[in-house]
Amino acid sequence: MDSNPPHLLTNFADNDRLQMLKNAFEKKYGKSPKFYAHAPGRVNLIGEHVDYCGYSVLPMAIEQSILAAVSVNDSETIELANTNPQYKDFRVSGTEEIGIDKDNPQWHYYFLCGVKGIQENFSLSSLVGMQCVVDGTIPASSGLSSSSALVCCAGLVTMEANEKSLSKVALAEICAKCERYIGTEGGGMDQSISFLAEKGTAKLIEFNPLRATDVQLPGGAVFVISNCCVEMNKAASSHFNIRVVECRIATKMLAKVKGLEWKRLVKLAQVQTELGASLEEMLSLVEEVLHSDAYSRAEICQALGITPEQFSTDLLSSNTQHVTHFKLYQRARHVYGEASRVLCFKSVCDSQPADSISLLGDLMKQSHASCRDLYECSCLELDQLVDICLKAGAVGSRLTGAGWGGCAVSMVPSDKVESFIRTVRETFYASEPRRAAMEKQSLFVSKPGGGATIFMKE
Questions:
Q1: Any bridge partners for residue 454, and if so which?
Q2: In the annotation, is 190 catalytic?
Q3: pLDDT tens per residue across span 68-115
Q4: Upstream peptide bond of 209 is cis (omega within 30 degrees of 0)
Q5: Quick one: pLDDT band at residue 233, thresholds 50, 70, 90?
Q6: Would you tell me how many other CB atoms lie within 10 Å of the CB of residue 210?
Q7: How far apart are CA 188 and CA 175, in angstroms?
């Protein structure tokens, strides 16, 4: 697993997308690319909002991806272009410190996160000149990790162009860390599956240390992705980081009550590890220690014995300074419950009982209910879409990705796929012109895809 990303010689006659990107690059820059870098998006089957709390997740890579064509020169300037005309060209010097404006999360800043991550890892005072044309087939702000795939692709591009070498695990860890330059405090799932994915299998991704284990999904069912067509940009909204902060505060409240060194603990999984408790025992502890009403800043400060200034500086992120109340009980209950569902999902896949599809479907339904009611990261359109998917024949359906818009993933018996897609199309997409226009890229069957790759022309 901990090998370097593969380098593949590819016949472009067999790959229309690579050939189209090559043509676009040559039209833009008047020469051929030296190499191509590919990083896939992902769908998380179960385990939402638990990676940044230290818990395992269970995603698979999808066929949709970020693909970049790259040439190298000695100009020490990085030039970026995109096949989508709504994303404007950008250029930056490779000899100056790369600035990333987290208050203005444009597409090129995500790319520059990956560039900066590699530059800092190798302590490079200057970067080789690059010309890049980027092509994306992952719907933006859909919960399928388009932004993280772009960061991963950029990291891979920068490593290759500067003739450096890193393992998949190292690249995943660097890209997870450097995406925080854009202001998103994620946990590393998206970058890990983008690099560690293997065709034909989902992965259980564990952290500290980072490792990926194959999860063979049961036969007789497929996963169908459907986009509710509400966009949510994690970096442009504080919703995501508020949840990170609430989990961080809940960690410290639980740790302090149990007499742990609460100041050094930042993840809910750390409290469980320190106590040597089961997830069921952690759920009982949440019931015992935390109340269901939202906590005020003053109440948290009093419980932890800190000043309002320490609260703002030590516990809040830059885009959560405005928040006055925090739902600690609900967020901690979701995280410990969801972490348990991930392990149950993996166990069912490993043992493959006769009713495995039904059992997995039930876990997915429980996950969505928890995301909707406890973590409050769904939205009206997503809830409607999940209900339609269940009525259309899915055994389980849930939001996937950060939420507040984006996609649902549904587990559908193989013999019901055609009728399922037809019903969802007629019931959800045909009901509104904007959805109907987006339907072609918003409703599709997904199989586990492979991870990040460097392509060379044969």
A1: 7, 37
A2: yes
A3: 999 999 999 999 999 999 999 999 998 888 999 888 889 999 999 999
A4: yes
A5: low
A6: 20
A7: 8
Angle (CA) 48-51-52 rounded to 5° is: 115
What is the C-alpha separation between 412 and 161, in angstroms, rounded? 42
Average pLDDT over residues 230-250: 85
Q: What does the alpha-carbon distance between residue 78 and residue 99 come to, in Å, rounded to a whole number?
A: 13
Instruction: Supply the pTM of this predicted model.
Output: 0.93
The answer to whether 225 and 408 are in contact (CB under 8 A) is yes
Query: What pLDDT digit, counting tens, does each position of 260-312 carry?
Result: 999 999 999 999 999 999 999 999 999 999 999 999 999 999 999 999 999 99
Catalytic residue among 103, 135, 190, 293: 190
Determine phi and psi for 312, rounding to 5 degrees. -65, -40
